Amino acid sequence: MLSSSTLVYSLSLFLSLSLLSFLFFLSPSRHHVDILSPADELDDLSLFHRASVSANNNNNRRLISLSQTPPKIAFLFLTNSDLTFLPLWERFFKGHQHLYNAYIHADPSSPISPISSSINAKLIPAKKTARASPSLISAERRLIARAILDDPNNLYFALVSQHCVPLHSFPYIHNHLFSSDHPQRSFVEILSDEPFLPRRYAARGVNAMMPEIPYRDFRVGSQFFVMAKRHALVVIRERKLWRKFRLPCVVDEGSCYPEEHYFPTLLSLEDPRGCSNFTLTRVDWTGSVGGHPHTYGADEVSPRLIRALRRSNSSLDYFFARKFSPESLQGLMEIADDVIFRD
């Protein structure tokens, strides 16, 4: 016979799937392509539940384990093309295999080159993603859940893309994250006063976010974060806000960037004091085109650029930067040891 907890969980999954199907067919925007199928969402719910249960079961075991092995950073690579900067990341990770894990979520329609075993990377089962779509939120939650399941010593989760590069050495980043100055604090950008906030809030419809998310609670921020485990667990356990953020944008698709809204809004509501309100990934939006930031070319790479990108208005330097063109890799490799990884 099924245990009561298993029966309750199975019933919850069934009701969740039924609700997703109901919302999909009754939504006035169903002519929009929704690549988040009910079957995929059910699969994700199961994954998130397993990760949550695993975290609870491993809590005491982790405390014992940490006395023997140090805390780790889980690097979450969200990609849709080859990892152009893999050689630079290999050099960044070299010699620190006991302090990190790497997880790669690649769109299944995009070919990914074989990943070097030297970066200790795991390819996770991925689903199709699309820009300006809640599928990116799902992919990021999926990466977090897989990392939680894989290693209980993953205590920070750093989301990066195939266009991100490190600006410091691995020891610099690990030491700063786990120093006593930043005890389990998340570095998630949370903004409430941006001029485009009203348009982004109304992108799904004037009252589409109500009543769960009134305008006063809506926040925006960078897609890229470094998140503490306690907040990562909040993210994979959350259900209520997700029902709103998964809705397609039908009023203003040009203002629809769900992955830049969901995480800042959720963590602002759950634990605003536990978040830094700033990101550790530097992006230059000057002269952006089509929602894409400035892309650094090969002719821009220099020691001076790296030092300029590190500087921030917070107590920490930026750890990572984007976007870099594939042609810039050679120049970055040439200054890696003497500049990038020399703090």
Automatic annotation (TrEMBL):
GO terms for cellular component: membrane. InterPro entries: BC10-like (IPR044174), Glyco_trans_14 (IPR003406). Pfam families: Branch. GO terms for molecular function: glycosyltransferase activity. The keyword GTP-binding does not apply. This is Glycosyltransferase BC10. The chain crosses the membrane at residues 6-26. It is found in: Membrane. It is a single-pass type II membrane protein. Signal peptide: none annotated. Its main location: membrane. Keywords: Glycoprotein, Glycosyltransferase, Membrane, Transferase, Transmembrane, Transmembrane helix.
